Write a sequence for this structure.
């Protein structure tokens, strides 16, 4: 007959068929695509929209100020850590021209702070300065003609 597995008694074809069957059918848990699940992703088994909790708030889009602070602080910390990704240019980092100017100034200040007081102090400075500078510039989004608000 066919080849056998190292265990000896089961033909390899049966082992492969078993693995394939388990892979295709899943474990039978919720949303596994079982015989009564005709709704597709995000649908319940009867095809209707999933039930939402009445108290769960709708997702909120962050403000330009919040996005500015999050982006700049993330990339400034990556630079401080010497990350491989810190070398990306401002467009690849998703920054506007004005945000990049803020980022550059904050990175310079953070490096100086790290030399004087260590990395934790530099990270705290990054957080403080990004919050302050992004709020003062109202998100710093208007200097780049290629910046688009999130949709």
């Amino acid at each position: 007959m066919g080849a056998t597995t190292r265990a000896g008694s089961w033909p390899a074809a049966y082992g492969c068929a078993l693995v394939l069957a388990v892979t295709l059918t899943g474990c039978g848990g919720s949303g596994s695509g079982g015989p009564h699940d005709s709704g597709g992703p995000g649908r319940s088994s009867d095809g209707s929209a999933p039930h939402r909790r009445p108290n769960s708030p709708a997702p909120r889009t962050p403000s330009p100020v919040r996005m500015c602070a999050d982006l700049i602080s993330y990339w400034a910390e990556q630079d401080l850590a010497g990350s491989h990704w810190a070398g990306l240019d401002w467009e690849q980092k998703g920054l506007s021209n004005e945000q990049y100017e803020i980022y550059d100034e904050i990175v310079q200040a953070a490096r100086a702070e790290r030399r004087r007081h260590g990395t934790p102090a530099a990270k705290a400075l990054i957080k403080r300065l990004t919050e302050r500078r992004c709020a003062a510039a109202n998100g710093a989004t208007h200097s780049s003609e290629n910046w688009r608000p999130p949709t």
Remarks:
- Residues 73 and 126 are 6 Å apart (CA to CA).
- The helical segments are 12-25, 64-81, 97-117, 119-136.
